[in-house]
Amino acid sequence: MDMGLRVCHISSAHRNTDDRIFLKECVTLAQKGYTVTLIAKGVVSDNSMINQILFPDYHSRFGRFVAGGVKMLSYCLRRNDDLIHFHDPELLWVALILKLTGRKIIYDVHEDLPRQILNKQYIPIAFRRILAVLIEITERVASCFFDGIVAATDDIARRFNPKKTSVVRNLPVMGMRNFVYDKKNDPSVLRLIYVGGLSYDRGILETIQITGILNKSVSCRIWLAGDWESAAFFQRCRNLDAWQFVDFLGYLQPAEVYNHISNSDIGVCLLHPLPNYVSSLPVKSFEYMMFGKPMIMSDFPYWLSQYKGAAVFSDPFDIQGAVDKILALWQNPSLYSSVSSFSSGLILSELNWETEAAKLLNRYHAVLTKGVK
To answer: Is 212 helix (H, G, I), strand (E, B) or coil?
Structure first.
């Protein structure tokens, strides 16, 4: 019944190569017969399944919120889609206006923004709690008018009406394992990898220092892939003595990310214990697991239960403790192999996008058939 219906995914903040938006949700919908359009910044790919419209890349948050919002609204009003699926809190006001015009709306909540706000260093401390509360209220009230909510984690989903909310976790696409990968150049070098935002609260300073200390015992290098939170923080990291052991890759397309993960040995995920991290499920952790890469992770209670058997854990601020955990894993082939096999097996059996796609499709069907006799 849903075949051929027109759906439009919109984002003013994410690139059009975003794993969750493009590779998982848009491709899944197109494969099921939907006519899918994606409006986002970036470069148009050669994927003929998805219609793509490039969105301007605004350099300021305020410009993106105001001018970007107006432009996105203009794009959507000129279209005749059956459903609009938006991905950014800054587009809440746009979505509300679109809802008033009779369009069906799904809000995809990737992260817990109110908790994130509490840790934004560029916002004065006195205003963070007030702003977090205002955003919480705004999201809750606005969501009452939307037709469906898609949440990336159970924790996020609890903030919304369960009757119209689906948890669609950001798990890896098993088909990506079929890429042809180069083999690791030097098996004697311990190759760490971190993929994601490069910021202070994601433990990047500690990760670089850990790499430096590891070189006192083994030959070790780390790949860092992602965007820096600021030029100042980038320079701060470059000034570390251990920077000589870093290979900075910049922002990578998904296929390049998988290529590097497959050629690494251990994935790093030493996020600081902030409210928006302690109950999160980092996307890259599952991608490390998909390729059978053991991980060193922060010892959050939630992560200890969720990733048991797939990682070793450390206090993210205990640099020597993390070094010891990594060495114990790397220098014990039996333990390394056991963790590797467990990780990839868990992804193969249950923690993959193929199991999540059905939840997305069911939510779409519920929204698009509501009120249809």
So the answer is: helix
Determine the residue type at 178.
N
**CA 228 – CA 270 distance, rounded (Å):** 16
Average pLDDT rounded to a whole number, residues 102-119:
92
The pTM score is: 0.85
Domain definitions of the chain by residue range = 6-171+352-369, 175-349
Q: What is the DSSP letter of 208?
A: H
Q: Are 36 and 26 in contact (CB under 8 A)?
A: yes
C-beta separation of 210 from 218 below 8 A: no
What is the residue type of 254?
Answer: P
Are 322 and 270 contacting, i.e. CB atoms less than 8 angstroms apart? yes
Helix (H) / strand (E) element for 41: namely strand 35-41
166 vs 161: CA distance, rounded Å: 10
Helix (H) or strand (E) holding 8, with range, is strand 6-15
Kindly report the CA angle at 174 between 172 and 86, in degrees rounded to 5?
40
| pLDDT reading at 63 higher than 50 | yes
Whether the CB-CB separation of 296 and 312 falls below 8 Å is answered with: yes
Which one of 3.10.129.10, 3.40.630.30, 3.40.50.2000, 3.60.15.10 gives the CATH number of domain 175-349? Answer: 3.40.50.2000
The rounded Cα 59 to chain-centroid distance in angstroms is 21
What number of residues does the chain have? 373
CATH classification code of 6-171+352-369: 3.40.50.2000
Report H helices in 66-146: 67-77, 92-100, 113-117, 125-143
Residue for token pair 């010891």: 324
pLDDT tens, position by position, 302-313: 999 999 999 999
- Domains 6-171+352-369 and 175-349 alike in fold: yes
* Concatenated DSSP letters of 15-69: ETT-IIIIIIIIHHHHHTT-EEEEEEES---S-TTEEEEE----SSHHHHHTHHH
The pLDDT of residue 119 is 78
